[in-house]
Amino acid sequence: VFVLGYILIFPALLLISCSDHATIDPKLSDQVIIEAHVINYEELSKSEQDKIGICCFYSTGGWTVGDLVRFSPEKAYYVRARINIDILARLTEANKCGTITQPARCTEEEIQTKAKALAEHSNPHMLYGKYKNSWAFTSSGIAVPKTVKFDGHRLLSINRDTVSRLDEVLIGPIPQRPDQMMIIIYSSSVNGYEPLRNPRRTMN
């Protein structure tokens, strides 16, 4: 009787423990990148052009000298986009519980606490970059080569509007004209949970 009772109760305990973990609506990913537009060098302001400095290289697969190809920033492309701070922060922190090697889906309370701290951090760059979120682009379904090892591509500038809760970002130089922008969420896939959808936006 004890064994039978244990068999019946144990699955119920699993369901109870799993129910503590937050459910992430897949549609949230579609609400992160509000808009994104491809522009060329001439459309940048003088101050934005000055931020580029001496560059640029893209990777053909690795990051040794032999893997890098030089390209001209004047002939490159740039993406100006607006991003929903609060939704991206929620997706960013959703799987940041557990350990680095074994991330886990957070509870709703944990996500709210961590996402609020991230979204309201005094440094807006904390939402982007290594171990947070990286930039990716495709052109006709083919990945555009990376220009930065961990971040994917360079974040030239970020302007945060705390009223609208939007970040306006400028990314580039990009060696090929992209037609789709993506934000790759670090640890977006966690064993036992539905992987988070990386936000994306088709561009003109």
Q: Can you characterise this structure?
A:
- The protein is α+β, with helices and mostly antiparallel strands and 204 residues long.
- The protein has one domain.
- Helix content is 22%, strand content 29%.
- It contains 4 helices and 12 strands; from the N terminus they run αβαβββαββαββββββ.
- The protein has helices at 2-18, 46-52, 85-93, 108-119; strands spanning 33-40, 57-59, 68-70, 77-84, 97-98, 103-104, 133-139, 142-143, 155-161, 166-174, 180-185, 200-202.
- The longest helix is centred in the first third of the chain and has 17 residues, at 2-18.
- The radius of gyration is 20 Å and the shape is globular.
How would you sum up the global shape? globular
Assembly state (oligomeric) = single chain
- Show unreliable segments: 1-19
Structural class: alpha+beta
Helix count equals 4
Fill in the keyword field for this structure:
204 residues; 4 helices; alpha+beta; 4-stranded antiparallel sheet; disordered N terminus; single chain; 22% helix; 29% strand
